[in-house]
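Lab notebook, bench 4. Continuing the backlog of folding jobs that were queued last week. Each job is logged with the same field layout so the records can be merged later without manual cleanup. Today's entry covers DUF2283 domain-containing protein, a 129-residue chain. Filled in by technician R.K.

JOB TYPE: sequence-to-structure
TARGET: DUF2283 domain-containing protein
LENGTH: 129
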Amino acid sequence: MKSRITFDIEAGAGYIYLLPDTETYTIQATEDVGDSPLLVDIDEDDRIVGIECFGANAKKLSPIAGLEKIYHENGEILSFRLSEKPVKKHYLLKGIQFYFADERSKYFIGFDIVDFQKYKKQILISMIK
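JOB STATUS: finished
OUTPUT FIELD FOLLOWS
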């Protein structure tokens, strides 16, 4: 399996792939996550397939760039966390719950996959730590 987290030092950008590299998809759109600095890539099935991070949020990806297994099972939910800071704001977008540690949504701390009709758990199981 290929890395699910990348970091480009020169661009100051990071990317989180939400699906395993065995999945094929075509990006149809890129959207903002609320008023946060994150951008998400949406495929033809209306799934978020990737999260683009910039600046300080991207730098938090640098130490974990190269990881293939990015999710933790939390009951029925699959979670990804960059920090265990308390959640101050959250957004639900296309079956993904995004979490931020500040009211202005600048400090990204992670997300949960909550819609397993859209995101098939049997496909994501290979990405669980």
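OBSERVATION: The two ends are 13 Å apart (CA to CA).
SIGNED: R.K.
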